[in-house]
Each structure stands twice: as structure tokens, then as C-alpha cells.
């Protein structure tokens, strides 16, 4: 492996080289990653913890809540609809819920910031209440399709006025009582599934969602935990049918939010690609609907050890020790995609440094995330010297065989936290610094990301 030259006056203790302006930053390799880090709360579970607590009657306590901007958007919206939500000095959040059916009409538009999960799930909640709400968001969110949610919610009787293309700003006029529906998901989406189920909470009768390809099941697990009458039947070929009895009464809970496996993928990949590294990432949610990334990295030869396996808040959790590994390219089966849907950007980074070819397909959904992640990852990886072919529904990547990539490019993060973090990680195995034009979106899901990266001890030379 070729040594790399670090600037002589470069401080060896940080991997974040320069702050160019308030938003852009350069990231650089400063040595193997060593250390131990605890993951912040799971974003998906944090959204649901706030929403369901706000719909219970009485006081819920939430420990380990992710205090990222997306979750704070959810909390602000639930406050605007009547819930009382506060953060205690011990970091535990308390929520006094209004009860299913008790949401109040918000006085102003609900600002969802960058958060698709907040928007889509709350559209479901509003749809079966006799209230009207307008949703607005940032430039990224305002481009994302909402028709996938307003289509089924129109069937329950709610009305929608959206911007051209079915995007935000969008107004939902809810209906009460709504009509229960049986809905087969046309796209594998936990957000659409959850939106229909949340609408079903305040709808008389049984709401049924048929899910041909399983997606994250946090809504189902947590709704049951709150006392909802919800059953899941798994049929031929793994097709899941979820039945929820409406007019539910949710009971307040004490919730412990497990750490986010999507966030954990960043330090894990950093250790795998950076020679000499060994890190332990603690408190990682291991729900099987979320762990596709770890299975695929292991299939590539990743040295991952799972310890301290336990349950937190009704979800399996483990600590993961990751060591630098010689990775080999693989073909990712398309049916694994939903269980690693948010991890493809950082997975592509790992693939670009593996030996041989990695082929991914069936990833059309990546084009409608916070950014078009296939286009931006292909462009960014190519700019730092990787060998990438962009196809309509996936990337084909010929890896460097473990060799560092060139780096030395500026990456456009386009209001997408996972693009920004992926290139900060890629920089750990590049010859020159990688600049990210705007790191501010990282705060939506992983506010401690830069502190974590700077904290992995560095020795300043490649082993
Ligand atoms: C999420 C579901 C996924 C995921 C998103 C969070 C959720 O979106 O990409 O980050 O919390 O339900 P889709 O349901 O659109 O795939």
C-alpha cells in the first residue's frame, strides 16, 4: 500500500481538515480508526415514539430519542396539533398525548424541514381526523413524491391539494369518520405502510395493508406495544398482511429507543476500508428488517463481531466490532434492498474499494430519497477516482482492490445527509482530501457524526 503525504502542519487528531465556510468541510485520512462509540437513537423509531406517545392518553417517557432535526420536526408538528412534548434535563423526553381522535387543527403550516418520514406518516394521521393541515419543507423534501401516500389516503375519504407533481406544499383535509381500506402496497415502502396504518388508528373497523416485500416493521411492533389491536399474517412468498382494528385506545409507555443501524453503517464501513482500523460501535439496532447492510458486508468478507446481544424497547440490539477487512465485490440480490435501503450510499463506498465487481439492481427508490442517490453517488465516486457505471436501477462498481482512491474532489451533497456522510467516510481511504460542499444536512439524522469521526484516535500514518 502506498503511503500518503499529509500536510506537515496538519493536526493529527482530527479527520476533518478545514472548515471552508459555515457549510463546506474537507475530510482526510489521518490514520487507522480506533475507538468505541455509542450510536444515537434510531431515527425511524424516534419519529414513531413521539407520534404514538402523542396519540396515547396520558404521559409517556422516551429515553434515547434521536435529537436530530428530522425528529424535532415531528415533535414540533405534534405540539402544533395539541400534544405536550418536553425534554427533561436528564435527556428523557415526556409526552402528554391527546388520544386517538384528539388531534387539533394546527394554526400554521407544519414545517417538515428535510424529513420525508415526518411528512408521510403525519399525512396519514391528519387524514382520519376532522382537521386540515398544510405541509411545507425544504428544497429536497419539496421535490419528493407524496402521491404514494395521498393515493391510499384519498380512498379513506381524505382530500389533498398538492403542488404540481404531487409534491409539497400540500394540504390535507382529513375526514372523520374515515372509511377503512384494504391496501396492497405498489412500492416497498415502510412510510406508505405506516401512513395507512396511522390513518387506520382513528378509522372505524379494520384497516388492512398487504406488503408483498417486507419493509421495516417498527410501526407494527410499537403500535402493539402501545396496546393497539394489530395482527400480522405471513403468507406464501413472505407476503405480509397487517390488520389493525380502528378507533384504538393507545396506552402511554416508557420507551427506550435503540441505536440507529443506519447511522452505525458509517463508522463500520470507515473501519472496514481503512487499514489498521478496529472500532466498536455500541447500541446498534439489529431488527432483521434493517440489517441487510451488515449481511451484505459480511458476504463481501467484512470482519464483524456481534457482542452483548440484548433487547432494547422491544427491538434486538448488539454491539458491533469492525476491523479493517479485505472486501470482495458481490451481486446484491434485489430483494435485500428494502432491509438496507438507506445504507446504499455508504455501501457503494465500500464496494468502490473492494476487489472485483459489485452489482446492484432494483434500486429505483434511491432516485426519490433526499436526493437522487444513484446519480449523486455515481458522480461523486467517479470524481474521487472510483470506477462506476450508473444504470437505471443500480450501480455497477469495479473496486480498487483495497487501494486508496484519489480523492481531491468537491462533492455536492444536495441537502442529503447520507451523501455528505458517505464521502466523509470515503475520505478515510483516499490519497487527498475530499471536500463536501454542504455538511449541514448531517444534523437531520446524526448530529454527533463529525465529533465521532474526529474522536476516532489517529496515528497519522498508514500502516
Ligand atoms: C423510513 C422508511 C424508508 C427509509 C426512511 C425511513 C421509515 O423510506 O428510506 O429513511 O422510517 O419508515 P421508504 O418507506 O420510503 O422506503
Could you characterize what this model shows?
This protein has 12 helices and 23 strands. It is an alpha+beta fold. The longest helix has 13 residues, at 43-55. α1 (43-55) packs parallel to α2 (69-80), α3 runs parallel beside α5 and α4 runs parallel beside α5 (190-201). A hairpin with a 5-residue loop joins β5 (84-87) and β6 (93-98). The chain is globular and about 60 Å long. The chain has 2 domains: 25-40 and 258-462, Alpha-beta prism (UDP-n-acetylglucosamine1-carboxyvinyl-transferase, Chain); 43-256, Alpha-beta prism (UDP-n-acetylglucosamine1-carboxyvinyl-transferase, Chain), CATH 3.65.10. Strands 1-2-23-22 form a 4-stranded mixed beta sheet. Strands 3-16-18-17 form a 4-stranded mixed beta sheet. The chain has helices spanning 43-55, 69-80, 116-127, 147-155, 190-201, 218-225, 261-273, 292-299, 344-352, 373-383, 417-426, 449-455; strands at 16-19, 25-27, 34-38, 57-63, 84-87, 93-98, 110-111, 132-136, 159-163, 167-173, 182-184, 206-211, 230-234, 240-245, 254-256, 278-285, 303-312, 315-323, 357-359, 387-391, 394-398, 410-411, 434-436. Bound molecules: shikimate-3-phosphate. Residues 44, 117, 189-191, 194, 216, 341-342, 365 line the site of shikimate-3-phosphate.
